[in-house]
């Protein structure tokens, strides 16, 4: 199926997560990109009207532009499977694994893919065992500085860098506001990069890495979506050998988690040039400041044509299955 073939695409955006506003912006970007290459597309929220619409007039395929749990934890993908509606992106099981950062990091470790040392701490254990004692053990084991972030979630919500013991309790409280489990990770200084992966039919390929330089040093929610707070370099300012290593590591992570179609792998490139994977996103942001569109542009490709090709692959999968 090529660009412009008669297919009807439903773009799902919005939802009820903390990332609703980002999702709506991503959805509009997807809608415009698909329409620009001649694909018939509509945007719909993931609300109570969705299932009746899928049953009464199912689209040929769905593009999921939902962020947060709804779009990334596998649940919506499972519902689409039940409805027999094909969609772009990985299946429900792979999404569940990638969404839970401790689970994803464990899979990376099993595949010998480097990722910073970590401990996952549920709020209940944190309270039962005594906050002070637990935090002391974390610092003793992982050292400082630390990165604290929700075990599930995206867009930098609830994330904080902790450089001294006294700041750790507040960081944990801030994290628990977004998730019941905190991921406390050894902070690795270096260059923040993101590698977008797409598979247009010849196997997964890594697009040029995008380097992220937040003005205040932390790529949190404000830095991601507020104009002027972050500078991006696409392609990243890496020498050829390091760039190749980063791309290879990102591809290995995509494959290790059983992903398909597209993903974004976030990495830190340490001062010695070695990359470590921080996380994998199965529903990458597609807003005007998001990283996948920057990578597409750096590769000299067109976002609408990529999305249309992925839609065609999703439809073909459903016909083959």
TrEMBL record:
Mg(2+) 2 binds at residue 281. Mg(2+) 1 binds at residue 266. Residues 105-312 form the ATP-grasp domain. One of its GO terms (biological process) is regulation of cell shape. Its EC number is 6.3.2.4. Keywords: ATP-binding, Cell shape, Cell wall biogenesis/degradation, Cytoplasm, Ligase, Magnesium, Manganese, Metal-binding, Nucleotide-binding, Peptidoglycan synthesis. Coiled coil: none annotated. GO terms for molecular function: ATP binding; D-alanine-D-alanine ligase activity; metal ion binding. It is found in: Cytoplasm. Its main location: cytoplasm. Pfam families: Dala_Dala_lig_C, Dala_Dala_lig_N. One of its GO terms (cellular component) is cytoplasm. Cell wall formation. It catalyses: 2 D-alanine + ATP = D-alanyl-D-alanine + ADP + phosphate + H(+). Pathway: Cell wall biogenesis; peptidoglycan biosynthesis. It comes from the Bacteria. Binds 2 magnesium or manganese ions per subunit. This is D-alanine--D-alanine ligase. The active site is at residues 19, 155, 290. Its cofactor is Mg(2+); Mn(2+). Belongs to the D-alanine--D-alanine ligase family. PANTHER family: D-ALANINE--D-ALANINE LIGASE, D-ALANINE--D-ALANINE LIGASE B.
């Amino acid at each position: 199926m090529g660009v412009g073939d008669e297919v009807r695409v439903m773009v799902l955006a919005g939802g009820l997560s903390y990332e609703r506003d980002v999702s709506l912006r991503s959805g509009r970007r997807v809608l415009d990109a698909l329409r620009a290459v001649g694909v018939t597309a509509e945007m719909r929220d993931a609300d109570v009207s969705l299932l009746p619409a899928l049953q009464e007039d199912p689209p040929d395929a769905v593009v999921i532009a939902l962020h947060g749990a709804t779009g990334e934890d596998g649940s919506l993908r499972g519902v689409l499977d039940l409805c027999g509606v094909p969609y772009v992106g990985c299946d429900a099981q792979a999404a569940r694994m990638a969404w839970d950062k401790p689970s994803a990091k464990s899979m990376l470790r099993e595949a010998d893919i480097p990722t910073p040392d970590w401990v996952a701490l549920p709020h209940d254990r944190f309270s039962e065992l005594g906050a002070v004692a637990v935090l002391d053990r974390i610092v003793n084991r992982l050292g400082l500085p630390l990165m604290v972030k929700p075990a599930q979630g995206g867009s930098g919500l609830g994330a904080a860098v902790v450089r001294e013991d006294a700041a750790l309790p507040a960081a944990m409280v801030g994290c628990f506001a977004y998730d019941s489990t905190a991921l406390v990770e050894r902070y690795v200084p270096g260059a923040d990069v993101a590698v977008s992966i797409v598979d247009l039919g010849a196997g997964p390929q890594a697009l040029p890495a995008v380097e992220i330089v937040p003005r205040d040093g932390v790529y949190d929610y404000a830095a991601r979506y507020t104009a002027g707070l972050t500078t991006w370099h696409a392609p990243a300012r890496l020498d050829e050998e390091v760039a190749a290593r980063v791309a290879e590591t990102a591809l290995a992570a995509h494959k290790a988690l059983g992903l398909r179609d597209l993903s974004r792998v976030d990495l830190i490139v340490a001062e010695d040039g070695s990359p470590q994977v921080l996380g994998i996103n199965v529903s990458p942001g597609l807003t005007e400041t998001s990283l996948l569109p920057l990578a597409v542009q750096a590769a000299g490709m067109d976002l609408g044509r990529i999305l249309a090709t992925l839609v065609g692959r999703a439809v073909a999968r459903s016909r083959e299955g």
